[in-house]
């Protein structure tokens, strides 16, 4: 058996502004740093063998601050763009609520939460799934099958795609899934790479979670 922890990065500077962030490389706020440290505190009982992050600084910073609380051996860390946030295309850097006012609630929700509706010149959640799951199966699952404990620090949408895969969530249900900043999904994985159990460990409630 192995543990697989999924952690969404702490609050970022654009989370606070409610701007579509996507691939823009934005750092953490002070609250985000505290969320990251709190997340580390919540998983320090797990002896992780390897960590994976996206290449974006808000995920890498979260893992850095988590490690200050874990206080164990140095953990091998691998960065890969397959774990990056969804590319919001033409919506990047725009205010979410202004987009809702301009395009209406139905279109807004399709872009924000939908499974296969990409924003103009951007990615849908389905697109994220298509780039992330092959990497997960080829690189991360073998680690779990060797009973190595793995932590992945990434983003709201890349983690939603991975949770869809792990829990076999339908296309119709996945729009309702939200993962808060600093939140942890902890799975137990068997030798065949299948989920045995799931636990949600929330970091300290330092602010009202920013929705994806």
| β-strand amount | 15-25%
The biggest beta sheet reads:
6 strands, mixed
Low-confidence stretches: 207-212
Instruction: Report the total helices.
Output: 7
- Note the overall shape: globular
Distance between the termini: 32 Å
Number of domains: 1
Topology as a string of helices (H) and strands (E): EHHEHEHHHEHEE
Any idea what the CATH superfamily is called?
Phosphoglycerate mutase-like
The residue-averaged pLDDT reads 94
CATH architecture: 3-Layer(aba) Sandwich
The CATH topology name reads: Rossmann fold
Our Rg estimate from Cα atoms comes to 16 Å
The number of E-state strands comes to 6
Class from helix and strand fractions: alpha/beta
Describe it.
The protein has a single domain (6-201), classed as Rossmann fold. The chain is 39% helix and 16% strand. It is built from seven helices and six strands, in the order E-H-H-E-H-E-H-H-H-E-H-E-E. The longest helix has 21 residues, at 125-145. The two termini are 32 Å apart.
Topology:
Blueprint: E1 2-8, H1 13-17, H2 30-43, E2 50-53, H3 57-70, E3 76-79, H4 96-103, H5 105-113, H6 125-145, E4 150-154, H7 156-167, E5 184-189, E6 195-201
Parallel strand pairs: 1-4, 2-3, 2-4
Antiparallel strand pairs: 1-5, 5-6
Provide key terms for this protein:
7 helices, 39% helix, alpha/beta, single chain, 212 residues, disordered C terminus, six-stranded mixed β-sheet, Rossmann fold
């Amino acid at each position: 058996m192995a543990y697989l922890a999924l952690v969404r990065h702490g609050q970022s500077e654009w989370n606070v502004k409610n701007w579509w962030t996507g691939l823009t490389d934005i750092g953490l706020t002070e609250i985000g740093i505290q969320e990251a440290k709190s997340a580390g505190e919540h998983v320090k009982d797990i002896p992780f063998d390897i960590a994976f992050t996206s290449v974006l600084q808000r995920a890498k910073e979260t893992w850095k601050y988590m490690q200050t609380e874990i206080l164990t051996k140095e953990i091998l860390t691998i960065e890969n763009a397959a774990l990056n946030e969804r590319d919001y295309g033409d919506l990047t850097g725009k205010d979410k609520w202004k987009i809702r006012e301009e395009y209406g609630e139905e279109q807004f929700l399709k872009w924000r939460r939908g499974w296969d509706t990409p924003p103009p010149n951007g990615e849908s959640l389905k697109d994220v799934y298509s780039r992330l799951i092959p990497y997960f199966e080829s690189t991360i699952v073998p680690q779990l099958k060797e009973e190595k404990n793995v932590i992945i620090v990434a983003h709201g949408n890349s983690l939603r795609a991975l949770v869809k895969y792990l829990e076999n969530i339908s296309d119709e249900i996945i729009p309702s899934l939200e993962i808060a900043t600093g939140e942890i999904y902890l799975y137990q994985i068997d030798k065949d790479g299948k989920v045995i159990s799931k636990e949600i460990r929330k970091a300290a409630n330092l602010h009202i979670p920013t929705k994806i």
